[in-house]
Amino acid sequence: MSISHTGMVYFGTEAKPYREEVVQDTIVESVVKQFKERSEVGIAKYGTTMDRKDLSTLEWMIHFREELMDGLLYLERVIQDTKKEAATTNGSYNVVECQCK
After folding, report:
1. Strand ranges inside 1-101, DSSP E
2. Which terminus of the chain, N or C, has fewer Cβ atoms within 10 Å?
3. Domain containing 81: what range?
4. 99 or 52: which carries more pLDDT confidence?
């Protein structure tokens, strides 16, 4: 991104007029706030930040895998709850198994 002397902002070859006002994206702001809060919880719980230097790349990858596994468990729980709710509400939800490959 660059700003020309004519007041145009260039994104690659696309030019748009420069605007002084800051446009707020409430979704992005919400996620940033949650990241900051999560960081504070982690610092309080573990006494360190993601800047720590005591883990190898392999150890970081193992931590990442474990977090993904936890996330999949949460997702599976929500899927099962949604299916149960659909069954008890006469199928008002259209629950379809994905045929993705």
Report:
1. 2-3, 8-11, 14-17
2. C
3. 55-90
4. 52
